[in-house]
Amino acid sequence: MLRFVVRRLLQAIPTLFILSILVFAWLRALPGGPAGAMLGDKATPEKIADLNRTLGLDQPIFVQYFKFLGRVLTGDFGSSLVSNQAVLDEIGFALPATIELSLTALLLAVGFGIPLGYLAARYHGRLVDNSVVIGTLVGVAVPVFFLGYLLKLWFAGEGLGWFPPSGRQTTGIDATEVTGFATLDGLLTGEFDAFGDALWHLVLPGVALATIPAAVIVRITRASVLDVVNEDFVRTAESKGLGRQTVRRRHVLRNALLPVTTTIGLQTGLLLGGAVLTERVFNWRGIGYLLAEGIERRDYPRLQALILLGAVVYVLVNLLVDIAYGIIDPRVRAR
Amino acid sequence: MTTIMPKRRKDKVDELAKAAGTSLTAQAFKRMRRSPVAITGAVIVALFLLMAIFAPLLTPKDPYFRYPELFTIKTPNFIPGSMPGFLFGSDEFGRDFFSRVLVASQQTLLVGVLATLIGLSIGMVIGGLAGAFGGWVDTVLMRLVDVMLSVPSLLLAISIAALAAQPSQWTVIIAVSIVTVPIFARLLRGAMLAQRSSDHVLAATAVGIRRRTIVLRHMLPNSMGPVLVQATLTLATAILEAAALSFLGLGDPDTDRAEWGLMLANAQRYLEVRPELAFYPAIAIIIVALGFTLLGESMREALDPKNRR
Amino acid sequence: MALLEVRDLSVVFQRKGEKPFTAVDGVSFDVDPGQTVGLVGESGCGKSVTSLAIMGLLPRRGNRVGGTATFEGTNLLSLSDNQMRERRGRDLGMVFQDPLSSLNPVISIGLQVTEVLQRHRGMKGDAAKRKAAELLDKVGIPDPTRRLSEYPHQLSGGMRQRALIAIALACAPRLLIADEPTTALDVTIQAQILSLLKELVTDTGTALVMITHDLGVVAGLCDEVNVLYGGKIVERAERHALFNHARHPYTHGLLGSIPRLDAPKGEKLVPIKGSVSDNIPWDNGCAFAPRCPNAIDDCRQTMPVLETDGPGQLRCHNPVELADAVREGAR
């Protein structure tokens, strides 16, 4: 098992390495070059030449690349053009908000997706199945940000007013910050009103962000269960006279969830993309919000860091999923 | 040395390949004609195409003209709704919103089709080369594709769109298309690799047909099924991704341009005043995306060998 | 009284928008305690469907089952799903064709054996494991305690089939149904598995229903043989009678298409013409008529019935003459 984990870790390194080259190239390809991008509107040819010298952009390209790599590895992404803060600090501050939102969405997606998919497969071809399938098809056709606005319009503010329309916490609520995770802080400090408030704020953006991953998980689960129930080993399990629940849990679900695990890993990519849109709709001060703001203000140092970070997170999450897959499927470990 | 092979045997191999490929497609088509899902999808797509083609003839008003009667009564917090002559009322610039929704179908179709076609072409070249040559070509190309896939798709689109000094419709199209490249590349490579060990390709190799001929005449055509399915599905996601990019401010800043995603993104600012400005383009996008998805999914199901009887 | 009495068993598959298809059509046979009975025929003749119907393992939807299958006085076909689950694995065991796909790939061999012990014998923990190791040992798997924690992909094909046999026999059922248990295995392994099965049923007194297309398997194992064609039994005979003077042209054909080492040099194999798809429906005559070398007009007009024929039973208008059969057999 350990050898499997190490091997997968080593396999991720070339991908990350090529990625760093691409991001470096991306920075060079920006309009006006990195210097122009950094100076933005204030760029004049003299200033650009000046900055190029300071940044070492007159040095040979591979020297520049290794310097860039060195900075990236030490976490130095420069400072944001918008806030003048170090980009890494900005990200560190915004990260808990995004993780909290993404985890909520992932939990919702998995929590609803797998049971619904299983239900659809069990009642294959009947009304339940057809409704679930149509629901998932519509679910992936709705633009995430529009869904966010719809939820806001219907359930928050001027609509039913059940949920707060934006933000992570009600202003004026006295919450102590420990980890930056609003819900976790509420629990740690025993401020349960703050915990409830944070949870309340999570509902609408969480649902908006969960929709597409949930739809995908439903469909993969359904297809996978339909495949597995026709497998010979399920017939063997039935021939042993095992109880219905045992056959379902131990033999059908356990095998059917293998492809679902991979899908959940792939969904984190969708989640990261969706978070950018959702956070903007709900004024959620996370990574996506930073990114959207960065695009609007052409804050290239920030964008560069975020793109690299997004890719690294995605690679790492899929690595984790692979390892999880190895734990549930003994055949993978052996390879 | 192809002359060694008699013509008759060549035909025989072709027949084998055809039997594996086209008759399969014909069967799939037959199955699709019976499926209500496929019919619904096809009808939606057909209506959308008709709408886009005949939009200029269908619009009751000039979609680009700022009507004074709509504009003059506009106050900062009021955009007129439905009124005689203007079915959907006005947009924020006093233009006829109904005509704009109609004519926007053209640009939306253009964005979807171009983004898909560009992604498809580049992806097919990469996947085709990898699948045809194998070996180190395959390794290098697929490593590149893996890296592209290692960036979450919207993030990749954003980083490409952000490269343009001035955002435009083209940056959106190109950004969206690049995202689909790795998907098509992997798909075609996979299908071709599967073909490579199939009986009719082995038969063709055994009778000494040149590799180029095998690839072009046997492997490629028979690998097109899944690619076609993916292209149909991509038309839906391309339209949705383009809307997302517009929403993030990476869309075309030209206020004259009518495109559903752009209109939906711009309408967010007036959501509290006139939610319909967002609803109509959103509903249009949802229906069209659904249409392409239904069509693509039923194609996939029809082509799936598991469903063959 | 027979252990299992199958009477007039029929299975009709009906899929939405398609013609109903009769896979098993009025099949009757008996299995006595400790007896080995063969069901023989080409693929599609209904032999597997018969066994699945007896075990209650047919898909829940899309089929109709008629007739009775009385096991120790209880008609299995009238039992509820839950009652049937009590019986399967305890009174009736089954071994399937493909040992790899018939074992759950993500669960250890140990659990796959112990779960049936726990279900029907209430054995848990170490007791169950000890018993499982004992079972694996009995089916000839070396180092059984270590194998318990292994997964199906770590075992060879023969070992997997041995494990499946151990699972099927774990609770000492009175009847074991083996559906083509050797078809997916190498020839050398086939013989080992067959002799294992023979040994086990003799030792434990378990009755065995052997489903196969391979007359070689029948020759080595079965006391009585039922030959199926087109969902009906066309000939039933004791093993030696069948091999020495098969009466039905189909059985005769099956025997004729096996290469024999003791055949005179130059003798040709006689294949059966056509395939199962050439069948005509039984109500228009004999389903085998289009492929039958002995077919006469009667065969295409009236359905033959299963009638007593010497010690066995036969469904044929124009059987192979006994004299011919003996002569063929003597060659």
TrEMBL record, chain A:
GO BP: transmembrane transport
GO cellular component: plasma membrane
Domain of life where this protein originates: Bacteria
Residue ranges annotated for the ABC transmembrane type-1 domain, each copy included: 95-325
Membrane-topology descriptor: Multi-pass membrane protein
Keyword Cell membrane belongs to the record: yes
Signal peptide: none
Major subcellular site: membrane
PANTHER family: DIPEPTIDE TRANSPORT SYSTEM PERMEASE PROTEIN DPPB-RELATED
Protein name, per record: Peptide/nickel transport system permease protein
Taxonomic path: Bacteria, Bacillati, Actinomycetota, Actinomycetes, Pseudonocardiales
TrEMBL record, chain B:
Family per record: Belongs to the binding-protein-dependent transport system permease family.
Keyword Transmembrane helix (UniProt): yes
PROSITE patterns: ABC_TM1 (PS50928)
One Pfam family cited in the UniProt record for this chain: OppC_N
SUPFAM superfamilies, A to Z: MetI-like
Taxonomy of the source species: Bacteria, Bacillati, Actinomycetota, Actinomycetes, Pseudonocardiales
InterPro entries assigned: BP-dependent_transpt_permease, MetI-like, MetI-like_sf, OppC_N
Topology class, membrane: Multi-pass membrane protein
Keywords tagged on the record: Cell membrane, Membrane, Transmembrane, Transmembrane helix, Transport
Identification of the protein by name: Peptide/nickel transport system permease protein
Any one Gene Ontology BP term: transmembrane transport
Major location category of this protein: membrane
Subcellular location per the Swiss-Prot or TrEMBL entry: Cell membrane
Organism expressing this protein natively: Herbihabitans rhizosphaerae
TrEMBL record, chain C:
Membrane protein topology class: Peripheral membrane protein
Domain of life, source organism: Bacteria
Main location: membrane
UniProt-annotated location(s): Cell membrane
Matching InterPro entries: AAA+_ATPase, ABC_Ni/Peptide_Import, ABC_transporter-like_ATP-bd, ABC_transporter-like_CS, Oligopep_ABC_C, P-loop_NTPase
Molecular function terms from GO: ATP binding; ATP hydrolysis activity
Listed SUPFAM superfamilies: P-loop containing nucleoside triphosphate hydrolases
UniProt keyword list: ATP-binding, Cell membrane, Membrane, Nucleotide-binding, Transport
GO annotation, cellular component aspect: plasma membrane
Keyword check for ATP-binding: yes
GO biological process terms, semicolon-separated: peptide transport
Claim: Cell inner membrane is one of the keywords in the record: no
Occurrences of domain ABC transporter (ranges): 6-255
Family, per entry: Belongs to the ABC transporter superfamily.
Stored PANTHER family: DIPEPTIDE TRANSPORT ATP-BINDING PROTEIN DPPD, OLIGOPEPTIDE TRANSPORT ATP-BINDING PROTEIN APPD
Name under which the protein is recorded: Peptide/nickel transport system ATP-binding protein
The species this protein was found in: Herbihabitans rhizosphaerae
Organismal lineage: Bacteria, Bacillati, Actinomycetota, Actinomycetes, Pseudonocardiales
